[in-house]
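Q: How do we represent a protein-ligand complex in a form that can be generated token by token?
A: Start from the inputs.
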Amino acid sequence: MVRIRKALDGLPSYKPGRPAAPAAGAEQAFKISSNENPYPPLPGVLEAVTATAASLNRYPDMFATGLVSALADRFGVPPEHVATGTGSVGVLQQVVQATAAEGDEVIYAWRSFEAYPIVVGISGATAIQVPLAHGARHDLTAMADAITDRTRVVFVCTPNNPTGPAVRHDELAAFVRRVPEDVLVVVDEAYREFVRDPEAADGIALYREHPNVCVLRTFSKAYGLAGLRVGFAIAHDEVADALRKTAVPFGVSGIAQRAAVESLAREAELLERVEALVAERARVYDALAAQGWEIPHTEANFVWLALGGQAVDFARFCEDAGLVVRPFAGDGCRVTIAEPEANDRLIRLAGEWRAR
Ligand code: PMP
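Then emit the structure tokens for the protein with 4'-deoxy-4'-aminopyridoxal-5'-phosphate bound:
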């Protein structure tokens, strides 16, 4: 029998959101389980993708030079400080591969992004999960207290998936000051473009002041390119170099690189769509609150319903009515803010659930 590393024993594989299958009697089914953008790519992006497809017989630019330079301009950072990967989850895996192994510790809040325990588990390092505090917010004091001389990395997910709150900038700045400089702080900002709270953390501002801060961003959410798998890190030289070493060779396809560059060039239009989603977020939040739901403040494109032991039942109830949400058994359901029709259905079903 082939010997698989012990670290993988009992480790689940990542669970994607289920596809939306039309339910009996429901006109159209909506998948609001993966925090995707409901809008399709812009026509100009699709045209660029089609044109790039003609050179699929060639490997892509391994270091995504065009995309890296566009990102460096966009964020005002040196191109050497930008490293791309197969989605930001791919970059996260590179980060952990570069920094932690058996005997090391990685700290993150829990509950947070489901990929964290998997990525850390694969590395063989020990995950130190620090419970969220009141309001489903990061407890940065407890996270700083959890640092030992074995700590190599801390993930801070802001806004936090799946609960929604963003970390405050002053809190994160104070936290980073407490972290030893040989410990990497990964600020996972997958949902940054949806943030409207002026006091919310700005990971890139902290990266500019601290060589041990690395920011993760993605084209999957606000930019609507989840299917192409392109994410990136902004980090100082030694971290960015390590990310280039741990990258899967040619992991970001030529199509993905081109689509990301073209999306950046059309950012204003894409951010208008984000604005519409932010407005929908407020509408959904207020409607659910009026029904009596207690929802943590959200700065992301989703809301968290703390259903406890009823999470799976609620997800089934929604699915029967053509709405696929994401249950976390025993804890809650995360629902993505999507097109108004999907949001309307969510509001209706959430109301029916409470009225049962
Ligand atoms: N970070 C967080 C907090 C996420 O929620 C996600 C996607 N669900 C990712 C990273 C990864 O996104 P992607 O790999 O598509 O860039």
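The CA atoms of residues 222 and 274 lie 6 Å apart. Residues 35, 87-89, 113, 157, 161, 188, 190, 218, 220, 226, 231 surround 4'-deoxy-4'-aminopyridoxal-5'-phosphate (CB under 6 Å).
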